[in-house]
Design brief:
320 residues
Length: 320
């Protein structure tokens, strides 16, 4: 293991690594209940809930065994204690992490569900998913279980790419009014959630985009792609503003620090990189995992980062 620093700026410090957290590779991670819990989703078909113990220790609290295929995404709601998991079994399960109860099971047949996220507007009770081979975004009210809308990725002129309009990941804008969805062909589409109208298509990547994140001001959309690049777009115009280069292989995951000054990225090169948004530079590279890093997430309070990997482990870091 090694950690490389550049300068005396903010940095990640490894605190704990939970070896063999799952029986198969871990693909997703999130924080819940005011950062008291970390949840991890795995190809072993389970979601595990971990209590964050001081100083930097994880204790397994509960295992949700109800999916029948691999879990590709987990997310937490702005509403306290509510989380969701997305699986290749075509379902999204909404959970209560205090009571270990299932709120709702949302079906996305006949396609599997991929990346999921809750609307930042807690009153809306909305969760959305990238709908895989259905080529778009599906939106539900998780309280009623009603499917509210579906938005389709736009067609492309080159018909050779049409079969690759496979939806992988989504991100809500901080105000909850827009939703971005990425595709296997390297494009990202942004929609108005209320009108369901296409706003922009963000181009520049030539390979699948698996990571999406808005900066807190909503003006910038960041993307991570299998081309090993991270792009920063003007979310209001669709214009590519900058490219962050440094990963040696696929850039798989993104996490924006709550203060908007830093961005973290995980890659199949086994690294986590910390980027300074203002200078557009990589200020730290962490090599704690032994395999590709599928998921990373800053805690709500911004003091910690969690990561998950195909090496079946969970990493926990302090951020200061």
């Amino acid at each position: 293991r090694r950690t490389a620093f550049r300068g005396e700026m903010a940095r990640l410090r490894p605190l704990h690594r939970q070896e063999n957290a799952h029986e198969s590779g871990c693909w997703s991670v999130c924080w819940a209940s005011e950062d008291r819990f970390v949840l991890s989703g795995s190809m072993d078909e389970t979601v595990k809930q971990w209590t964050v113990e001081e100083p930097g220790r994880l204790e397994e609290t509960y295992t949700y065994p109800e999916h029948s295929l691999g879990v590709v995404s987990v997310a937490s709601a702005p509403e306290e204690n509510v989380v969701a998991s997305s699986s290749l079994d075509s379902s999204i399960r909404v959970w209560n992490v205090e009571k270990f109860e299932t709120y709702a099971v949302l079906a996305n047949m006949p396609s599997e569900t991929w990346g999921i996220q809750f609307s930042p507007n807690a009153q809306s009770k909305v969760v959305a998913a990238a709908s895989g081979s259905l080529s778009g975004v599906s939106v539900w009210n998780y309280e009623s279980g009603e499917k509210m809308s579906s938005m389709q990725l736009p067609l492309v002129q080159d018909t050779r790419h049409q079969p690759r309009r496979f939806a992988l990941s989504i991100a809500f804008s901080p105000d909850g009014k827009r939703i971005a969805c990425s595709a296997m062909d390297g494009t990202v589409a942004a929609f108005d959630l209320e009108t369901q109208k296409l706003l922009h298509v963000f181009e520049g990547h030539k390979m699948p985009v698996r990571g999406l994140a808005f900066l807190p001001d909503g003006a910038t959309l960041c993307t991570a792609s299998d081309d090993a690049q991270i792009h920063m777009y003007d979310s209001n115009s669709g214009k590519l503003m900058d490219t962050l280069s440094g990963h040696e292989s696929w850039a798989l995951s993104l996490a924006v620090h709550p203060d908007g000054a830093y961005l973290a990225s995980g890659s199949s090169d086994r690294s986590i990189k910390l980027w300074d948004i203002r200078s557009r530079s990589c200020i730290q590279t962490v090599m704690e995992h032994k395999d590709q890093v599928w998921g990373i997430r800053f805690s709500k309070g911004g003091k910690h980062l969690a990561s998950v990997s195909d090496d079946k482990s969970i990493g926990l870091y302090s951020f200061q």
